[in-house]
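User: Predict the complex with flavin-adenine dinucleotide.
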Amino acid sequence: MESSLEAQVGPLRLERPTVLASGILGISVEIFGRLHGAGAGAIVSKSISVEPRDGYPGPTVVPLGGGGWINAVGLSNPGAAAFAGMIRDNRTVPIIVSLVGSAPEEFSSMVERFEGCHIAGYEINLSCPHVDDVGLEVGDDPELVSRVVRATKSAASVPVFAKVGLGRSDYLDTVSAAIDAGADGITAINTVQALAIDIEAQRPKLSNGIGGLSGIPIGTIAQRCVAQIHSQFDIPIMGCGGVSTWEDAVALVLAGASAVQLGSALGYGSPDRVFADVNDGIARYMERKGVRSVREMVGRALA
Amino acid sequence: MHETSHIVQVTSVRDETATVHTLEFDDSTMAAALPGQFAMVWVPGIGEIPMSVMVADGGRAAFTVRRHGEATTGLYNLGPGEMMGVRGPYGNSFDIRAGRLLLVGGGTGLVPLMRLISRAPPDADITLVMGARTRPEVFFADTARALLRPRPHCIVVCTDDGSYGRPGLATDAAADELSGGAFDAVYACGPEIMMYKVMRLAQDAGVFAQASVERIMKCGTGICGSCCMGRELVCGDGTVFEAGRLLANPDFGVRYRTKSGEVAYY
Ligand SMILES: Cc1cc2nc3c(=O)[nH]c(=O)nc-3n(C[C@H](O)[C@H](O)[C@H](O)COP(=O)(O)OP(=O)(O)OC[C@H]3O[C@@H](n4cnc5c(N)ncnc54)[C@H](O)[C@@H]3O)c2cc1C
Ligand SMILES: Cc1cc2nc3c(=O)[nH]c(=O)nc-3n(C[C@H](O)[C@H](O)[C@H](O)COP(=O)(O)O)c2cc1C
Ligand code: FES
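Assistant: Here is the predicted structure with flavin-adenine dinucleotide placed in the model:
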């Protein structure tokens, strides 16, 4: 029996289970096409806000060694109107538009802009750890989470995912509020709040000071969060955090993820190889284990 | 895997023009950078920007910076003994051919071309066309002379206003050179419209050509996407591209992305 790499994340069907994480190479539709052609099952855009944002001065993204990265980009993005214009002619790439804002009306107004575009879904960023008033500050307030998810859901005609991270409050309360408000799935996790200090310059390595840690060092944290969400809620999950090899991707699926996002891995591998390598590795693993679909493996490690 | 940024000390500062400084520093990783490669340079407390790696004597490396916005001004203002962070070198490099080479550069775009000269085969015959707007803005003429002295060479300095050297644009001088002789390769770095014209000229003449492209760069390592040019990531696929690939790119010579990612036109 042929095994299939198809993945089903709630209402979202993907030809392949690997997805580009938000904020990584996330503004150019030509690059989206290239990555999709090179194996990505879907592309999550950079988080888009109502107005364009330049982001913080540098350094904004710094490698830490050991496959770890710290970033505080400051959510630079071209704004919803310009981004909708850029993806208007897309017909082939499954794009998931990531949205960020602080009030429910911002989300519904942005969704209205994208409704004419060919997109596969939305991801609500409830977890950016380094910009005031948005991201984690929304995610930390379950009441606001619920209003934001409701506003997005009621305007959207495609699936809506809520992306969570580790903030001040219990992230499982955020998950619960998003599910109650009608989210079709959860993406977990965003970067983990961190600080990296340069001892020669005697100051933080990022201009913003605090940033978000991503890459290999957060892989096991992501596995833990995905497993917790999977065991406590009946909701499809896109796992994200520290995936750089097919083994990492399989581990997240076995922890409960229906699909897997890759972010920092693009920083150490070729954009033309990373997705295909992980997909091929997953396919070989499935064959060896006699598994026919990704779905069969979801959460198996904790069943 | 990418090494993390490390701190280096400026050893000396040289005035090139009223707005351009060359800062030398001791660092073996940057001294080994290939022509066309760049570093991400951190001026603590001010900013981090991409900089081409300049040649320097005795195992040292250098940056040549034009004072512009906040970060370049911060770098320009550094004095001997002061610290900066460097990471890289990143990106690919020029494919240096043998035979007769035509190099066309303007402004700080001359930096990777100086490194190219220092790495070219000893018998390569190099014609260097250098462009500037006015006489006081001309720099690297002496540096180029010193680097080219041991080999067959020709230097053409052009100023837009005719106040020094050949009057007119560097692209006009490049066109004359290309129509006057058989070159084996053309290399360009400078303002994008200039590079566009030079790539066109070389393609029309049927000569192998490459240019080193600039875009906004926040990470330098293929993560942030700020450097995209059509399907290309300038930081990782470039910064050096062949003429055919550049001229087929819908963005090259036409448009770029601002810091927010909005599209702007040249
Ligand atoms: C690969 C590469 C090598 C470079 N090498 C050199 C060099 O050797 N010497 C030198 O003086 N400069 C070089 N630059 C350009 C230099 O990085 C920019 O001038 C600098 O980032 C501007 O920062 P700022 O804070 O001073 O100005 P800002 O206030 O940020 O910007 C001033 C203007 O420059 C543009 N700009 C901003 N950032 C960049 C950027 N990263 N790249 C290109 N344009 C930008 C802005 O759109 C704006 O119009 C290089 C750029 C790249 C991409
Ligand atoms: C440079 C950079 C920018 C990011 N920008 C966003 C963003 O705009 N929105 C978002 O939801 N997540 C953003 N993230 C988080 C990633 O989508 C992802 O959740 C995180 O990096 C963990 O995955 P990884 O370990 O595979 O990188 C960003 C991460 C990085 C490294
Ligand atoms: S500078 Fe970040 S991807 Fe090129």
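Chain A touches chain B through 49 residues (CB under 8 Å).
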